[in-house]
Amino acid sequence: MRMTLPALRGALLASTFLAAAALQPAAAQAPAMPTTAPGFTASVFTTGTEGMSHPDSLALVGHHLWIAYGNTAAPDGSSGYSNIVEYTMTGRMVRVLTVGGHNDGMRLDPRTGMIWAVQNEDGSPNLVMIDPMTGAQSAPSPLPAVNGGGDDDISFLGEDTFISASNPALNTSGINTSPAIIRVTRSGGAYVAESLLQGDAPAVNVLTGQPVTLNLTDPDSMIVTPEGDLLLDDQGDAQLILVHMMNGKAERVLQIPLAGGVQVDDTAYATASAGELFVSDTGANTVYRVKSSMFHQNRPYSVSTGVPATSTTPAIPAYVGHLDLQTGMLTPIVNGLVNPHGMVFRPTGG
Could you tell me the pLDDT band of residue 11, with boundaries at 50, 70 and 90? Predict the structure, then answer.
């Protein structure tokens, strides 16, 4: 029997709830350790300290994991600092760096081997370059604030560098008419921006196949897919935006509403069936290592802020799930998190 769209969404939400509920213990209080689906295990990789807390962005550089601790720095850059810390795979701390402001985006540039650290997602954004071989870091460089807000995540695609433009100022109708994704280049000693995707760009809804006009009020995390496209998280609007790229331009834009109105943050693709997924749970001040030989190769996994309670169902705590881009469904593999944000995958197979 062919399901109508409302029925399909209801079925997806029910399936998500049942899968997550199956991972939860009987006790109402969240467990100290997350629970996992069969075939997956979770362990603590490292925890923050009083002076170095709130882990967020993660980056793999060779066999080392870099973790950005946002501490209590203000996301508009008005106060505070962040720590960016290098660890071995055994969790041993190698070096600690300090950057002014609140770090919310950190990626390794595969072209140069340098780490890009973007601070201040709500206003006055800046960029610090880090040489992971020496630990040397550049002075902060201002980044273009094209939407009245800040900048968040970075993606490298071909010769281009793209940044998600976060915390946009909306017009009087509540519409984001500013760029949501920008291409940044260096010119005359400063970074300049060119819009790749506007906040009110035309798109196609993957569930209905119908054209829509976007209103991206909360652009956030962004990654490059294995197919060479950009996947943007519009977090507060509970949707993902897939930008099919052609010759450095946005050829086609797809809107992926998330089942049940789930909000997500970072997404990572599993590049092998055997590997480990590192997850920063900012609210728990902990970075977890999730191991399995049952990852779906070249498929995405996302962290969810959880599902609020309804009149008929209890709240579902934050979790990590396997993401279906065709349906917007996020099927839990790790449950019982507090407030997860950053995520990165490392293959471990031969």
Answer: very low
pLDDT in tens, 49-67: 888 999 999 999 999 999 9
Model confidence over 211-236: pLDDT tens digits?
999 999 999 999 999 999 999 999 99
CATH of the domain at 290: 2.120.10.30
pTM score, two decimals? Answer: 0.91
- 343 DSSP β-pair partners: 279
Distance, CA of 192 to CA of 247 (rounded, Å): 20
Number of structural domains found in the chain: 1
Q: 288, 158, 292, 282: which is closest to 230 by C-alpha? A: 158
- 256: containing domain: 5-347
Amino acid code (one letter) for 56: D
DSSP letters, 59-97, are EEETTEEEEEE-TT--TTSSS-EEEEEEEETT--EEEEE
Q: What is the mean pLDDT of the chain?
A: 91
Check if the beta carbon of residue 134 is closer than 8 Å to that of residue 153.
no
Contacts 24+ apart (CB under 8 A), 240-249: 240/264, 240/267, 240/323, 240/325, 240/328, 241/180, 241/197, 241/203, 241/214, 241/216, 242/206, 242/325, 243/181, 243/196, 243/197, 245/157, 248/157, 248/158, 248/159, 248/160, 248/183, 249/196
